[in-house]
Amino acid sequence: MANIILTGDRPTGKLHLGHYVGSIKNRIKLQNEGKYDEFYLMIADSQALTDNFSNPKKVRDNVLEVALLYLACGIDPHKITIFVQSQVSALTELTFYYMNLVTLNRLLRNPTVKSEIKLRDFGESIPSGFLNYPVSQAADITAFKANIIPVGEDQLPMLEQTREIVHSFNRIYGDVLVEPKEVLPEVENARRLPGIDGKAKMSKSLGNCIYLDDSDEEIKRKVMQMYTDPDHIKVTDPGKIEGNVVFTYLDVFSKDDDFKKYLPEYHNLEELKSHYQQGGLGDVVIKKFLINILIDVIKPIREKREELINNLDYVYDVLKKGTLKAQEKAQETLVSVKEHMGLDYFSNPQFLEDMKDYFQNN
Ligand code: TRP
Questions:
Q1: Residue ranges of the domains in the chain?
Q2: How far is the CA of 43 from the centre of ligand 1 (A)?
Q3: Spatial distance between the Cα atoms of 207 and 160, rounded to a whole number of angstroms
Q4: What is the CATH number that goes with domain 216-308?
Q5: Residues with Cβ within 6 A of ligand 1?
Q6: Architecture of domain 4-193+311-354
Q7: Ligand 1: residue whose CA is nearest its atom 3
Q8: d(CA 298, CA 14)
Q9: Distance 151 CA to ligand 1 centre (A)
Q10: What is the pLDDT of residues 33-73, one digit of tens each?
Q11: What's this model's pTM, rounded to 2 decimal places?
Q12: Can you tell me the distance from the alpha carbon of 94 to that of 143, in angstroms, rounded to the nearest whole number?
């Protein structure tokens, strides 16, 4: 069986460090390993509209923004097809057929959808398009016959929903769709990077993000205000590691080499942690260390992004070509789905033959 990777992001804002460690880094690793036959990366603008329908400009303005950051982070358009969801109409059509295979109660039970409904204050007025976005996500995945889906933990209910749709479809209409499997980031903390305030997740609406184009000054300012251990008041006080955002970030980002470069008094993170826990290590030392590390991650991305902004024609061309390729592939699947559902009246000469028999015998 072919190995086909598909994943994507909603273009509702700039990408942040949470995106970087939660998904982009993983994608680049997969890209460089090259153990796949096709790799699709989707800018999910239609999905973004399910909760931003009254603000289409926000979505439109962020399509190229997301593409820019993909390229700036090192996504190679020769190896990965980047495309825009709304321009692949087969996806919307598939969604409509899949909706028959999913009950309203099932959609209301989806844990990610449930928490998003709460977060967005929909109350009793949930747009049905929003409730259905897991179904449209099943269309995204199956249209490309993707079997490998690199995502963050919050997307697991979407994958479960997709597998259920695949099973129902294949049982009722015949074996067409491919069952997908998720690939989660390897580092546990990277699956859900907390915001600088220590809140569960880095998110634009919570205002707790470090962005991939933040200046060195912004990085400094944000790390200096990071949540650490509120009981670690004097340097000599023992400090807590759990829930201390600086250490959570160091777990994700620091390498032994960084110690040689920026903090040679320690060999590795274990040493640093145990000193902090004993007492005698101040927050400013660990924060300065983290600042250096984050600047090393973000600076090259920021600079590459600036370069690409001066070459937007190129970015636009990458998206347009990728979208054409995605249209072809999704269309193939749609044709086969409709054939299996018997919706092939004008492409299958058998239809008219069958009907002639039918009317003869009735
Ligand atoms: N829901 C994903 C997110 O918010 C984006 C997405 C849309 C996606 N369709 C997808 C991810 C298909 C993986 C596969 O990040």
A1: 4-193+311-354, 216-308
A2: 9
A3: 30
A4: 1.10.240.10
A5: 6-10, 42, 44, 47, 137, 140-141, 149, 151, 155
A6: 3-Layer(aba) Sandwich (3.40)
A7: 9
A8: 13
A9: 8
A10: 999 999 999 999 999 999 999 999 999 999 999 999 999 99
A11: 0.92
A12: 8
